[in-house]
Specification:
The protein is mainly alpha-helical. 60% of the residues lie in helices and 12% in strands. The strands form two sheets. It has a three-stranded antiparallel sheet with strand order 3-5-4. The longest helix has 21 residues.
């Protein structure tokens, strides 16, 4: 019974690597936390909410990868409305309205104007992206 339930592999690392493999088709994040969308994003016509989740997920996964690789943790997981507006190309007011909706849906947390993605938000955007990879 133990062998069926407790496995020697690091399941958290496998999940992170799987998510990074999927998300890297759509964006990249650098060591300074800048997220850049790939050209394929334009074809997908993402909603503002999806772009926000993608951005915050990329930062989160980049930070997790740095941690797994035992690198200096330079990528920050959180962002404010100004940063998100710059990355997504949407107006700050639109970002704030969509963030409120994401917060109400428990996909992001917000504290003093700083936003972080939740596990539910990561799951949501990853399912969406994986469906696009399959459709691709």
């Amino acid at each position: 019974m133990k062998k069926k339930f407790i496995v020697p592999e690091n399941l958290e690392q496998q999940a992170i690597e799987s998510n990074i493999a999927a998300i890297s088709n759509f964006c990249q994040v650098d060591a300074a936390s800048h997220v850049v969308f790939k050209d394929v994003i334009k074809k997908l016509d993402l909603t503002v909410q999806q772009k926000l989740l993608l951005t915050l997920a990329a930062r989160f996964l980049g930070r997790e990868l740095q941690s797994l690789l035992k690198e200096n943790l330079t990528i920050v997981t959180e962002a404010n409305a100004d940063e998100l507006a710059k990355i997504t190309g949407d107006k700050k007011e639109v970002i704030q309205a969509r963030i409120k909706e994401l917060k109400d849906a428990q996909k992001v947390t917000a504290e003093a104007g700083i936003y972080r993605i939740t596990p539910h938000g990561i799951g949501n955007i990853m399912m969406f992206l994986q469906s696009k990879v399959k459709d691709g």
